[in-house]
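Hey, can you fold this?
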Amino acid sequence: MENPYDAIGGLPALEVVIERFCARVRTDMEVAEFFVWMDLDKQKAHLLAYLGQVLGGTRRHARATMRPNIAILPVRQRQFEVVVDHLVAALRELGVDDPLVAAIMERIWPLATQIVNTGSLRAAAV
């Protein structure tokens, strides 16, 4: 099986996913606070590079972890789950099938250890 990055259609598809994802999280009151103060265009570029790397693309993000980006904000497990749900929805809007969404989530869920910085972590499934 090809890597998830190539399987969804590479950079052009990931750009659409990121656009839809950002539109979704910006309007979700449970997580919008994380995105309101950001330069969203700059953040999209970081998301493209970081998620592209996580999904198996060849482009490398300057940082190996998301930790420095979110260190100033308290992030709870529930908020991480809401954000991931928006990513899943954006992938499905693009027409990504369930097995591929599951393969992508296998790479995304472990990132909770880099992002959640309050309370306890728990494993989650799609």
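Oh, and this one too while you're at it.
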Amino acid sequence: MASQYPKQINTLGDHIRARRLDLTLLQRQVADQIGVHALTIINWESNESPPETRFIPAIVQFLGYDPLPPGSSLPERLAARRRVLGLSNRGMAARMGVDQSTLRGWEARLHQPTGKSLDVIVSALENWYQVDAVGSCQFSEQSIQGKPSSSMLDCRAPTSQFPPVRVPRFMAGHCLRSN
């Protein structure tokens, strides 16, 4: 049933459904916000198909945080940044001023960047938050029955028309931030 809250939030579709239900929105209202057809939202929420990379920025804006893992290694972080920006391999390579096969090689760990290339990657990972962030999250400790909660944070996206979203503390690094 489409109106049921997900038992576990494991997929991007689960995150979308949970946020939609928290905001008491219809699937077509979310579809309008993200720029897709309502049937696309239905497919994502039912995990019939994953969202295309080009829709990730709008999904992150709707959610108020990035639910996908940021990656721990340089190649994983680079791929995660590309995904959050909604860019194809070609688009990210062009933006970075490198060849598409070079970027693909970095992400696939076929070779490691050095020198000037490493500077370009560091810039892509750190400085694009300012330029591309669809919202910035301000974390504040919330209390439960007068006691500070160590497991939940209030993630507020001030540039969004949506209210704050409660996110687990472990997801704090996933929330978009501005420098």
